[in-house]
Request: fold
Amino acid sequence: MKESIDKHWSTIIKGFEDKSFKHTLKKFRDHIHDWDADYSVNSTQTSLYALWELEFHVSFLSDQLPNRRVRETLANIPDGDLLILDAVEGIVNEVSYLNEYCPSNITMFGKEYHLKENKCLMSLAYNAVYAWQLLSKVVSKDPTEWRWGSIHKHYYEHLPFSLIPGFKQIWHREVEAAGGRRTLSFALFDYYKNDFENKIFLKSNFAANFRAAIDMATFEEPEKYPMYMSLDTGSSQNPFSPHYFDQNAIHYSQKGRVMKMGLENAKASAKYKMEILPNKYKQPEV
Reply:
């Protein structure tokens, strides 16, 4: 997406109806110029990029599918996602690539803008401007405050208790979530639950709950070759237990807990031991 903006900069500037958008787009380009695609909670570039991508995705096919919910459904499935990514990649080499699938109009803050030529490219540009203006309006005019973790949170819902006042305070959890839809630190935000009137724009409900880094060739030397695991909640289902949610901080720190493989290591580190003894009582005859 960044490559398309850079390569076709002059074409975009000529296509803007509102010439003030040139200044905003320049700020957008400068802000994400050196982004390394790391979806960390403290990245402000990620917030800008993710909103840009989201709006471009749901504007795709808007002429053919006027209902936004239907387009969100398309963008939320793997095949639909790949189709839109193909469009983005194609624009870099061919400015009119898949023009027939991109919108004829873009609406931003109640005002409609017409896309006459190079519709996919101009849709990218207008949505980049919109992403910048949206963060400036709802979150802060200072881009250094656009932290990914502040607008993208993972919701640990315990239904039905998360929906009941009073009970929600006991069971429900909301944490800043790193990662995104296509990252190893997976945190899938739901298109349907985006809320651009609230500073938490994107709510994630699906994530990699268990993570492990395992080297099966060296498990007999855990001190020399440590392996790691993490669980995003805890080891107890009792909300009053200290272990109900105690692993979450470790999970999102991306450090993990050292994990030892093999029966002998398990015996050495076991806190409890279970013995299965033969029944000393005679079974009744049937």
Observations:
- The chain has a mean pLDDT of 86.
- The longest strand covers residues 202-207.
- Residues 2-141 form one domain.
